[in-house]
Amino acid sequence: MLLPRALRAPAALLTALLLPFAAACGGSARADSEHDVTLRVGATGWKVEEAVLKFAHLDDTPYKVKWSVFQGGDQQLQAVRANALDLASSSEIPPVFSAADGRPNFKVVAVQRGSTLNQEVVVPKGSKVTGIAGLKGRKVGYVKNTTAHYFLYELLKQAGLTWSDIDAKPLLPNDGLAALNGGSIDAFASYGTSVITAHQQGATTVGSGADILSGNFLWSARDSVLKNSAEKTAAADLIARITKAYAYVRDGREADFAKVVAENTHQPVAQAEQDLTAQQKQRPTQARTVDDTAIASQQKVADAFTELGALPSRLDVKSFWTTALNADLKKAL
Fold it and tell me: The domain 11-116+215-332: what is its CATH number?
């Protein structure tokens, strides 16, 4: 559910760019019923959630959904901060950085369990690097403030290296692929479609985040959504529908949905089916309500970034989680 451009714009600049969009969308107008609701929802890479809902015939929502595509969950959270999105999906990491200033305008409202496959450190065709230890002193691209940042750090530790042992280059997925193929970096830590594309171009895997990452992907909602009962109900319903849609796919329809995936990720249908089947076997996509275990999992990640020096001080992640959607989500599921 990810895609692969240009070096990351500073958060302040991206926020400034998003503000006119937020204004044009009028923020989130107060809704008295679900029929009055328009949820602005983020998607990473391509609109896989919209596609799976349509495939499962569950896109007939009583509310409107406006999907917007971003290169990563970090940009989705920046859009939420700029009031340009109502609901964002991401790994555990983007909310940590979006809340680090102590003034988040969102809460994590649900957990979507998902696959951690296609989260890899890759090297280009012909590289002599065969493992993470071989990255010492080399230029390594990574997608900053994402799962790639986290699993690269953990893989380096496992190999007896520190972050300072590599020449780390923060790059967005598209830029990382171009840099890898152009020879300006020796390896690239990324995820999803960018990893799939890298392999199509001859790249090989030297490290994987599959067993490092928790598989918890978070739904974050703007505070204003949680203050409006119709919007809150709509958000819970949408999250539940996505769970039901993936269950529909797993009920013997993987081959058919793989055709939709292949069309959007530009890979052979057979490869798309193989990846989809492996992902759903590893960890079926399904939503869960907020609990202490999920919060503790993100706290572990946040502490790692504090140790890395990416956060100025320890962050108590519980401060931006809420159980406010639990009752609605349980009912919708």
Answer: 3.40.190.10
Starting at the edge strand found earlier in the chain, the sheet holding 119-123 runs 167-170, 139-142, 187-191, 119-123, 204-208
Q: How far is CA 176 from CA 123, 151, 154, 163, 213, in A?
A: 11, 16, 20, 18, 21
Mean pLDDT on 205-221: 97
Q: Where are the domains of the chain?
A: 11-116+215-332, 119-208
| Structural contact between residues 275 and 196, judged by C-beta atoms closer than 8 angstroms | yes
Number of Cβ within 10 Å of residue 259's Cβ equals 12
Average pLDDT over all residues of the chain:
91
Bridge partners (DSSP) listed for residue 120: 190, 208
The topology (CATH level 3) of 119-208 is D-Maltodextrin-Binding Protein; domain 2 (3.40.190)
Length of the chain equals 333
Phi/psi region, residue 43 (left: phi>0; alpha: psi -120 to 50; beta: rest), is beta
Q: Which helix (H) or strand (E) holds 167?
A: strand 167-170
Q: For residues 236 and 332, give the distance between their C-alpha atoms in angstroms, rounded to a whole number.
A: 7
| CA 264 from centre of chain | 17
Q: With bands split at pLDDT 50, 70 and 90, how would you rate the model's confidence at 13? A: very low
pTM of this prediction? 0.85
Query: What's the Cα-to-Cα distance from 259 to each of 193, 216, 268, rounded to whole Å?
Result: 15, 26, 9
Angstrom distance (rounded) from CA 8 to CA 170: 8
Q: List the structure tokens of 127.
A: 């590289």
